[in-house]
Amino acid sequence: xxxxxxxxxxxxxxxxxxxxxxxxxxxxxxxxxxxxxxxxxxxxxxxxxxxxxxxxxxxxxxxxxxxxxxxxxxxxxxxxxxxxxxxxxxxxxxxxxxxxxxxxxxxxxxxxxxxxxxxxxxxxxxxxxxxxxxxxxxxxxxxxxxxxxxxxxxxxxxxxxxxxxxxxxxxxxxxxxxxxxxxxxxxxxxxxxxxxxxxxxxxxxxxxxxxxxxxxxxxxxxxxxxxxxxxxxxxxxxxxxxxxxxxxxxxxxxxxxxxxxxxxxxxxxxxxxxxxxxxxxxxxxxxxxxxxxxxxxxxxxxxxxxxxxxxxxxxxxxxxxxxxxxxxxxxxxxxxxxxxxxxxxxxxxxxxxxxxx
Length: 357
Ligand SMILES: [Zn+2]
Prior knowledge:
Blueprint: E1 2-6, H1 13-19, E2 32-42, E3 51-58, H2 66-76, E4 79-85, E5 91-97, E6 103-108, H3 111-129, H4 136-164, E7 166-171, H5 187-203, E8 207-209, E9 215-217, E10 219-222, H6 240-252, E11 258-259, E12 264-266, E13 270-272, E14 276-281, E15 286-291, H7 292-300, H8 304-314, E16 318-320, E17 323-325, E18 332-334, H9 335-356
Parallel strand pairs: 4-7, 7-10
Antiparallel strand pairs: 1-3, 2-3, 4-5, 5-6, 8-9, 11-12, 12-13, 14-15, 16-17, 17-18
The structure holds zinc ion (ZN).
Zinc ion binds at residues 231, 233-234, 236, 326, 328-329, 331.
């Protein structure tokens, strides 16, 4: 299989392929052979930086069909590694056991770069909010930092794969049904993680891509819709529909189902209300802090539009200081970790289905 290995600054993947003790080019039983001892370079547009590649051929011990190849890897896997783009921190991950669905490890990738990126991003937003042009140096600084962060994240994911014998689960970036783009890492940039991971996994013999671009092996994608709104404990999906259902149910009860001292609302199950919440006035671009007494007042005044506006915010899950809090069961967890864990859960289900087939 002829391959072009991208050369990175710092941690060079090509170097690993050359010097790996078990299978590298210079080991006793190499599985990698030079195709033509050449460094290739290419660029698409005249202004682009050159991209350098190392040109090699790789040999495989066995030749499997895509399905056999993938099943072989998936049945040997011990866990999945769910990756999600976060809102507060760029990339969250959860390692989930394939058999017991227990979280073995969770956290955030590329920790060293998060604060820096946040600061520059805040600076950029500041320029934008004042209607000023973001200076070129700042834009390129952010782009460079995002790139470094993603490269670091990708290499940390590879470490997790090796440590846990895991299959990587990424969000399917073609899914359009996912709220606004609030993440520190835009979709377009995040594609890079996918690219870096697929390149490395292919070279490690853990992944193949068919001519339709589908992945076979140690990387799978799942649709991310609802993953950031689903409670990890009771599995309630806290989307718009569920909230609207609660609101119209309450309206039919003339809001008599709200207990202000208990701070609960009686739906089919008891729902815990937020004691304080923020109401946003779009037309005035204005946030106002409210509490349950305010809700009680507005219900007495019988202003329907206002009641709905208040009630929507009073019912959970609230994401406060980056924490997801379920209004049904009281479960609490970092909101980005909730996203990564739900992606991992979907990955486990997907893999179990594939293996059983
Ligand atoms: Zn819950």
